[in-house]
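Re: duplicated header lines in exported structure tokens

Our pipeline writes sequence and tokens for each protein into one text file. With two proteins the header for the second block appears twice in some exports. Here is an export where it did not happen, for reference. First protein block:
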Amino acid sequence: MVTTQQGWETALDKGYHETESLATEGFTHASKEGQVKGVLERHFRNQNDLVLLHIDEQLLKAELKYELAPSVNELFPHIFGRLNIDAVVKTTPL
């Protein structure tokens, strides 16, 4: 999952990461490692201060579903709830 440094710092303070899409779409967008480059190109172009959150799916408290994104014809992981920060096993600055 990609977020901003500020978004990650806020999550660390709260104990969870919550995105706008959870309120508007009912889930948090995530991606598999091989999908990150395309996600960055499509949704985060020219943005700085980004962080890649590496998530252990087994540690998620919220439900995880893989759903088709028709625009790119790929299955993406969607988290149906807040991302508990203890499911984030590593962070990588982008």
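Second protein block, exported in the same file:
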Amino acid sequence: MGVSGIRGILGAGMNPEIAVRFSAAFASRLREGLVVVGRDTRPSGRFLIRAVSSALQFGGLSVVDLGISSTPTVELMVQELGASGGVIISASHNGPEWNALKFLNSGGEFLSAQEMEELRGLADSGEPLFSEPVEFGALSEDATGDAVHIRRILELPLIDRERIADARFRAVVDCVNGAGSRIVPALLKSVGVTVVELFTDTGGAFPHDPEPRPENLIELSEAVKNEKADIGFACDPDADRLVLVDEEGTVCTEELTLAITADFILSREKGPLVANMSTSRLIDDVGSKHHVPVHRSKVGEAHVIGLMKETGAVIGGEGNGGVIYPSLHYGRDAMVGMVLVLQALAEEGVTLKTRVSSLPEYHIVKEKIASDTDLTGIEERFKNHFRGSSNTLDGIRIDMDNGWIHLRSSNTEPVVRIIAEARSLDEARRYIDDAYKMLKTCDETAL
């Protein structure tokens, strides 16, 4: 179970029985009102959304089904319709053998970690969840989600549609045949961008590993060069993460998405910046440039949003390409990220490659290892080996003069994640190798 919902491999890990149980528990928390549901394009979503909707209706709640919709679109529609909550059926960047349920409160935001623990406790309790006679809730469909989302983005004070249109951008988009496949082209065309669609078939399978990382975006890179485009955009299946490709076909590290948008926002609005513990040091550089405080949260969108609210942050997100702009809503949103990047390039009159070159250069390496090691047992060894400033808010992160390393248990998979960043790629990889050796030694000792 992640901080925002439940996720598993189809079969024992995710099935209609699980979906019904958790949706019934969610309905018992809400008791009345309207719930907005939406899904990404993976085949299992068609079946799970029926199970979710039926359980909610049997619990006395009315359901509005958005059909195939991006995660941020569902979040915004909860607000738009004044709903009591929402359920998103999507396993985000995971492959089609995975699916997940993500639960939203009345503000269109993910439930907190504590709320999710309470929901799981109720779902797993074995207690009857349909014990009282109820009046069944209604079911309706709403196809306006994309239009509402686009309108809300274009209404943002910082967005100047004419300014972007005057720049005559040409963009290639890879939506991995996911939930962004309709809204992304529509949004970009609405601001005058010429769009070349690469993978935007909502009825198609994922054409490659759906996580938007450089090694999975070879076709997009080639298409940007062949089409002589100004920029390429890639998102994950539920369109809350964004990766950029420059005009030469170079796939930018996902860490640059938040750095570029934060740099632009902070040049117009002053206020704190929030990112998670695994996000690049670029964020600290951007905060320093604009003389604003930078705060770090545990990994997980709900944790980032909680700290953003606490500190009054004007921009925040995660280094996986997740931009959270609270002037629109508290949620990672690839679509608002795209338009903010285009606005920045149009106003500054520069290419993406030039914009990227204006930021400090770091190299980040992200690995995951199947391991059930208790990380508390490795903290002292980490501190002694990687000498620097340590932080144990979420696993353990050590900041050194030339870089940092972060070791933590995943929220979404049974793995340990190791993230390292340094001025050189070799140094970042050396940090990873050293951490892996320590983990392996701990695993062998545990045996």
